[in-house]
Amino acid sequence: MTDLAALSLQSAAPWWQPQAGRALVIRGGRPLAGTYPISGAKNAVLPLMVSSVLTPHLVTLHNVPASLDVAVLAALLQRLGADLRWSTTDEGLSVTICADRIQPGRIETDLVARMRASVLLLGALLARSGEARLPMPGGDAIGLRGIDFHVAGLRAMGAHIDLAGGMIHARAPAGLKGADIRLSLPSVGATENLMLAAVCARGTTVIRNAAREPEIADLARCLAAMGVTITGLDSHTLVIEGGAPLTGAVHTVMPDRIEMGTLACAAAITDGAVLLRHAQADLLGAAGPVLAAAGVVLEPVDGGVVARRSPDGLAGTDFVTQPYPGFATDLQAPVMALLARAGGASAITETIFEQRFRHVDELRKMGADITVRGRTAWVRGAAALNGAAVTCTDVRAAAALVIAALGAHGETVLEGLDHLDRGYDRIAEKLAACGAAVARV
Ligand code: EPU
What we know:
This protein is α+β, with helices and mostly antiparallel strands. The protein has two domains: about 5-40 and about 255-440, UDP-n-acetylglucosamine1-carboxyvinyl-transferase, Chain (Alpha-beta prism); about 40-250, Enolpyruvate transferase domain (UDP-n-acetylglucosamine1-carboxyvinyl-transferase, Chain, Alpha-beta prism). It is about 30% helix and about 25% strand. A hairpin with a 2-residue loop joins β15 and β16. α8 (about 255-270) runs parallel beside α12. The longest helix has 13 residues, at about 255-270. The two termini are about 15 Å apart. The structure holds uridine-diphosphate-2(N-acetylglucosaminyl) butyric acid (EPU). Uridine-diphosphate-2(N-acetylglucosaminyl) butyric acid binds next to α2, α5, α6 and α12.
């Protein structure tokens, strides 16, 4: 990260510190024990922060994860003219966002290129002010990740959108109007973008084949607190009544189901037992039964879930990633790392992103026996993994390498830590509190 980018992050999110050290060194083999607090969900907090752009009133979010993605979005909102006030209590980080003087003009920033969720500003800015201009979004290199569904949906709502020179320029001088939209795939980002736009459109918007990820329902709860009527949350058809006068909102971000799954794998691979505070096992969807089949015991208790390895040990199992409530693509890499140490073979099929096996080569450096053919990775559980020098290629690849390192013999040195920091709130610190030997060097 450049010094300039670091400065703008610190001005918008003063709790964010450039992490010292380029590498994370993990000495494996220690069982994790104790309490690991699960943070607010990365993929819920980003659309929630963007929803503040819709209203001139205050939006307060509690349980905000202190991650790099949150700091980047805070900096983007600040450059658009929003005022952000942060506070920290025993319950975690909170932010109050005031977007009464938002300037929808051109967002010329290196920051957009860093984060895919910045594309959500398109729907929210169009809705609020009739115009948005931003660079094509960045984010993890895990596939093509087009924005054609976002663009088609907004056009159906009356927006004029030009895509040229790496920029998106959207206008709706007469405002947006409600529309009946069918998504070709239940895209999470497109569903969120169209929900945000629909809030200020004239009339009713119907989003068919909408995503049903729990983060969508969390956004809907916050929009409902602002005065918006949204129905159909238990189905793939969302109906949003646009044009209601908006108030502010106070909302607590849902717990991060992907962090929960990641830490459950970490507890099981080390044969430890960890209380995942604030975790909710019912958010795992199809990943719950897959983890159980792999030998991860998740026991709901007061205040969270205890994760440990089954007395029968870890076992190979097969799964296919699917939109929610199917197995989450974001848990594919972490669970692959666990299965690399299981007894028996596993077949893992990725259907959401076409380049989401980049962690395989890194896991192989640690002794994992994995072969990729097309969209399926064939894993033969190894008796042992060994520490190695590895590179994180995306946020969940980074999580997979942390899990493998915790369960490996010897020392693993991970580079590419920006990916880890993007999605995981103080993971090294929280793991160390559970007895892991981790240090940033
Ligand atoms: N797609 C298109 N055109 C579009 C939109 C999506 O072709 O206009 C394709 C994508 O290329 C992909 C599939 O549809 O193949 C699904 O993409 P989706 O839009 O659902 O993903 P996203 O909104 O870009 C969010 C999460 C991802 C998570 C996916 C799927 C955020 C900020 N990101 O991405 O999170 O993997 O949904 O659940 O919410 C992560 O946390 O590691 C992460 C990558």
